[in-house]
UniProtKB/TrEMBL annotation:
Lineage: Bacteria, Pseudomonadati, Bacteroidota, Sphingobacteriia, Sphingobacteriales
Cofactor: pyridoxal 5'-phosphate
Organism of this sequence: Pedobacter psychrodurus
UniProt protein name: Kynureninase
InterPro entries hit by this protein: Kynureninase, PyrdxlP-dep_Trfase, PyrdxlP-dep_Trfase_major, PyrdxlP-dep_Trfase_small
Reactions catalysed, as given in the entry: 3-hydroxy-L-kynurenine + H2O = 3-hydroxyanthranilate + L-alanine + H(+); L-kynurenine + H2O = anthranilate + L-alanine + H(+)
EC number: 3.7.1.3
Length: 429
């Protein structure tokens, strides 16, 4: 597509957008009567307008049924998670039996590593991307320490080449092969939180399996953003948060994936709880843990009804939109337009003030663009906020902007570019 840096072009694109009506289903932050242009869905998705209604319904169920709400009413809490499983599965390319909403992301990462990080002999190492989100780093460090290993010896980090910002798939594969006999677990982020790079999950998963390792993914920045096929790619396990691209609210419930090939593996360790016990016999209260079939058997604690209701509300919007593929098609165009607009700002300034470190090719990125501001980045970011453009800041010099296909428009992107140009001139010239 030949982009144009003008309002008419942006509005024409929006007029042809078959997903444009979904924007009206979300609430935008508003200060002093002015709506923000919200480009921060990579950090926290907007609130669906229906969120207050679904919470009110569950509060009414609590008020009217009290403890009987677990089995009575139109959405008995005991089985509520099953409605979500059917909607979660298409988001991550899984069977409904392979996914389950539960806990929060890092808790689930720990629970899954209990099962799938099984060091034996000299095969005790975990390979991950360098510069992963700190929570993943801390979780992995603590897991290897729990098993009695020194993180400096047990964790292999793969960093970009000197002078580069992103990882090359061939370098990841080479590092895996270099440590063929020592790697127990390959554990990467689907999309790197800082650079926005979408790793070649299928190829990396295959490479890990070829050397006999287990392969898992943290999909915090991928689930609901890009199409993944966890079942078809033969991924062993994955987990994600739902409050970024899936709009479930701050601290929203997490999701897990466990491939069905592991369902009958009795050698897997797991930290068990009553909620993961075989559903048909759960209330017999017997000793000896018998897991429920599928991913549900990894549950530990009671269903979190209110967070689950918020997630359910957003998942139903995804269902209305046709799940991931239509959203992805719009996202590719919207992100490309954002890239074009940023480059137009550089042209107008006469210098490359803004360097996009996110890969340029659509297959290697999602909705997020990470932009290095060469000079006075924080001052420019603050200026964008003052002009009602809300992205987010990552030290020391990166502005992250994400145009989300469910609720952002081409006009949003154009106007954000105009604001960036204005602020840049005010600050730099």
């Amino acid at each position: 597509m030949n982009f144009e840096n003008n309002l008419l072009f942006a509005q024409t694109q929006d007029g042809a957008d078959q997903l444009r009506h979904f924007r009206s289903q979300f609430l935008f932050p508003n200060h002093n009567g002015i709506d923000f242009i919200y480009l921060c869905g990579n950090s926290l998705g907007l609130q669906p307008k229906v969120a207050s209604e679904v919470l009110k319904n569950q509060l009414n169920n609590w008020a009217n049924y009290a403890v009987e709400g677990w089995f009575d009413g139109n959405e008995p809490w005991m089985f509520y998670h099953k409605a979500l499983k059917k909607l979660m599965a298409p988001i991550v390319g899984a069977l409904p039996s392979e996914v389950c909403p539960m806990n929060t992301l890092t808790v689930n990462l720990h629970l899954l590593m209990v099962s799938f990080y099984q060091p034996k002999g000299k095969r005790f190492k975990i390979i991950m991307e360098g510069g992963a989100f700190p929570s993943d780093q801390y979780a992995i460090e603590s897991q290897v320490r729990f098993h009695g290993f020194d993180p400096k010896e047990a964790i292999i980090e793969v960093f970009p080449k000197e002078g580069e910002e992103i990882l090359h798939t061939e370098d990841i594969i080479a590092k895996i092969k270099e440590n063929t006999d020592e790697i127990a677990l390959v554990l990467f982020s689907g999309i790197n939180y800082y650079t926005g790079q979408w790793y070649d999950m299928e190829t990396i998963t295959k490479a890990g399996h070829e050397i006999g390792a287990i392969v898992g993914w943290d999909l915090a920045h991928a689930a609901g953003n890009v199409p993944v096929k966890l079942h078809d790619w033969d991924v062993d396990f994955a987990c994600w948060c739902s409050y970024k691209y899936q709009n479930s609210g701050p601290g929203g419930i997490s999701g897990i994936f466990v491939h069905e090939k592991h369902f009958n593996n009795t050698e897997l360790n797991r930290f068990a709880g009553w909620w993961g016990y075989q559903e048909s016999k759960r209330f017999k209260m017997e000793k000896g843990f018998i897991p429920e079939a599928g991913a549900d058997g990894w549950q530990v604690s009671c269903t979190q009804v209110m967070p689950m209701a918020l997630y359910h509300a957003s998942l139903q919007i995804f269902e209305q939109a046709g799940f991931i593929e239509p959203l992805r098609n719009k996202s590719i165009s919207l992100t490309a337009y954002l890239e074009f607009i940023i480059n137009e700002v550089n042209i107008e300034l006469g210098v490359e003030q803004y360097k996009i470190i996110t890969p340029k090719v659509a297959k290697d990125r999602g909705a997020q663009l990470s932009i290095i501001a060469q000079r006075k980045g924080k001052q420019i970011f603050d200026g964008l906020m003052a002009n009602h453009i809300l992205g987010d800041w990552r030290e020391p010099d990166v502005i992250r902007l994400s145009a989300i296909p469910l609720y952002n428009s081409f006009e949003d992107v154009y106007l954000a570019g105009q604001a960036l140009l204005k602020v840049s001139k005010d600050v730099l010239l």
